[in-house]
Amino acid sequence: MLIVIILLISPSSVLAFSVLGNKNSHGILLDWNYFGIQRKKGMATTTTTTTTTIRMLSTPKVSDKNKDDGNNGYWRFSMEMDNAKILSSSGTISYPPMKSVPCKFVPSNDDNDDDDGSVMLSSLIHEVIQPPSVDALYDWYLKYHGSNDNDPSWAVVWPTAISLMEYIVNHKDDILQSKQQQHVVELGCGLGLVGLTCAALGVPKVTLTDREPYALHCAMSTLAVHNNMKNNVAVQAAIVDWTNLPDMLVKSTDIIVASDVLYDADTIEQFAKTCIQLLRHPNSTNNNNKSNNNNNPMILISDPIQERCAGARQLFLDTIKQYHSNVDIEIIRPPPYQLPSKYNGDDSSPDAIDHYRRVQEPTVIIKCSILKD
């Protein structure tokens, strides 16, 4: 059964939604009301209620063209983990424990976060709603749903998500060149920050998808506390199984974004087929002009440089090639994550230390532009 949450973004939007579905969907009850959110001192609180083009058949090599030299003002995403505020320490049967983490985009060549010269970019994503930790989410699953089969890894923001967010922000004029008509779908979205970044940049339609409904709950909660997105932007969320796509998404997508999804050899081919099913057909004009690739359907995947599953990237690319003979592939090495200038491990919380260690993992971006055959 498809469960879809739709919420239009506007300052006057009603900050409430519900998810309805079959009790047996994914083994849990998918029926709850979104907890209330009110503003308090800028934070949320709960209430009761280009790169080298690589031919498909060759072994992809990583290009350093987009690598930051530290002086060009590459925008970085910074999470202030030590300033997080607990919204719900234990959660309820309806929603998991949550905290609110302040964050912002800052230029890499500017240590003064308050004088970055661009309010628009710095405030794109200014707050993230997420579980307090993986352990807290795991305990909640056990307490309220009596299962240790659920995957709590979506509780954290992974380095692949951050690198893809940063890549899109720093190349927004190229990637989102025709954003007036674009539909972006994030697959395996977790906390949904990549898709929400696209929405904040003005993409008119964004669909967040994941198999885990409570991840979507947190993603839409983050959406709800952002009033800085344009009135003509719509974000929807859907519980999606890659083996059974809803008809409403098939051939409707301009850009697919995903991070850390190539970790299971048994699902990689199906993931690639899902991407093919989702993407619209290439335009009938300008498709063979590689300088205009960004007007074509596109897949953007962020993956650890050290693959979680050996050969996963090549298997994904080979599968895409089976369906489209004319695919432009770019493998991009984004700048490595830089610790905040004010970070001091001795004075930080264990969660903050864990976050800063985790997000330093090097990543690559896989960019596939589907051209007319």
Fold and architecture overview:
- The structure is a single chain.
- With 373 residues, this protein is an alpha+beta fold.
- It has one domain (4-370): 3-Layer(aba) Sandwich (Rossmann fold), CATH 3.40.50.150.
- It is built from 9 helices and 17 strands.
- It has a 9-stranded mixed sheet, with helices on both faces. Strands 7, 8, 9 and 10 form a 4-stranded antiparallel sheet that branches. Strands 2-3 form a two-stranded antiparallel ribbon.
- Strand 12 (205-210), helix 6 (213-224) and strand 13 form a beta-alpha-beta unit.
- Helix 3 (159-170) packs parallel to helix 5 and helix 7 packs parallel to helix 8 (312-323).
- The two termini are 34 Å apart.
- Residues 1-61, 111-117 and 284-291 have low confidence and may be disordered.
Topology (elements, then pairings):
Elements: E1 4-8, E2 18-19, E3 32-33, E4 37-40, E5 43-46, E6 53-54, E7 75-79, E8 85-88, E9 98-107, H1 119-122, E10 127-130, H2 134-145, H3 159-170, H4 172-175, E11 183-186, H5 193-200, E12 205-210, H6 213-224, E13 234-239, E14 255-259, H7 268-278, E15 298-304, H8 312-323, E16 327-332, H9 350-358, E17 363-370
Parallel strand pairs: 11-12, 11-14, 12-13, 14-15
Antiparallel strand pairs: 1-13, 2-3, 4-5, 6-16, 7-9, 8-9, 9-10, 15-17, 16-17
Label this structure with key terms.
about 375 residues, alpha+beta, Rossmann fold, 9-stranded mixed sheet, 9 helices, 17 strands, about 25% helix, globular, disordered N terminus
